[in-house]
Amino acid sequence: MQDSDKIISYHEMVGMEKMPLQRGMVFSDGKRKYSILLMSQRKDAVYNDGFDENGNLTYEGHDARAENGINPKKIDQPFETPKGTWTENGKFYKAAMDFKSGIRKDPELVKVYEKIDVGV
User: Which residue segment(s) compose the domain that 55 sits in?
Assistant: First the structure.
């Protein structure tokens, strides 16, 4: 069985990554050589994540915060916070654009975990 075929518990995943994983997107912090995405293809999933016909991951990213009458499902999280620091969406976008333009030599490596129902 390959690692990509393994079913592991949340606690095993946290132990492997040495951090609690609550957010769906975790950009590399320099301690690990990859970023992490948590996805779900369940019918009741909050985000419409999946794979296209070529096997490429489609991932929605974070929504805007639900404040001041904003419907978060209609607006993506901005790339920067009000203080000017990068959001997780912004970090992934910047890494992709920097690689595409040649500023960045190597693409950002991403480990993807998929949430599944195990019928407990």
Answer: 3-115
Is residue 46 within 8 A of residue 57, CB to CB? The reply is no
If one counts the domains in the chain, the total is: 1
For residue 120, tell me if it sits in a domain.
no
Using alpha carbons, select from 116, 103, 90 the residue that is nearest to residue 35: 90
CA 29 – CA 13 distance, rounded (Å): 17
Token pair 């910047």 in the structure block, residue: 94
In a domain, 60, yes or no: yes
Flag whether 17 is in a domain. Answer: yes
Alpha helices, H only, the chain: 10-17, 88-101
CB-based contacts of 54, cutoff 8 Å, min separation 6? none
Question: Does residue 98 lie within any of the structural domains?
Answer: yes
Give Cα 10 distance to the centre of its chain: 16
What string of pLDDT tens digits covers the 120 residues of the chain?
456 678 888 899 999 999 988 888 899 988 889 999 998 888 877 778 888 999 888 888 777 676 666 666 666 778 888 899 998 889 999 999 999 999 999 999 999 998 876 665
